[in-house]
Design brief:
Length: 237
Amino acid sequence: MGDDTRANDARRQGYDGTGAGAITPDGCAVEVWSRLPAGDAPDVIAAAVPPGASLLELGCGVGRMTHPLVDRGFAVTAVDESAEMLARVRPGVRTVRSPIERLDLGERFDVVLLASFLVHAGDAAVRQGLLETCRRHVAEDGCVLVQREGEDWHRNVPRESPIGTDGVVRILSATPVGDGVNSVHAQYEFPNGTWTQTFLSRPLTRVAFEQALADAGLRVETYLTEDRTWVRARPLG
């Protein structure tokens, strides 16, 4: 399948990826994200917000959740910093290329979505920037949906899970690198190629997570799933 291609932006320190095709600054392989299923995430989101709501999706990638949400009738604005990722979003969907923490559209949305464990950014200042972007863009009577890592996500390693019918993802290691941050190494294997990603992730206890929300002007309204990986938050009064 050929060698990996560096995206236009330099890799962030502590992040890397290998494999065919474009690799984003945080080490994500565009080809891999094109193959990952949305799973039950669109169902969780749709059940938690009003039908037809305006929705700002932060870190949309190739649109794996964007497209099911559009199909359910949501008015989605899809944001990602990678031009290669956004190029795979369906024509007709409004897209914006920008780092999430610097986004300021001057608009408010019924729903702001921060999925894909982005709230666990290794850099606490970046994490706070992501949450402040959520607060800046959510309507006063709207909500923010956040996807968290499972509580044993960093301890239960190595492990593997299927991807569709012919792929597998392996979380090979989660190695402490200081200041409460782990360097996570993942491998994605398909019959026609193998990709890797190394990224930094900061585990958050429930208390630390809720404090981070509060610091950004948000509060947890409810945990949407039994494992508390999906959360609905509201603006603080």
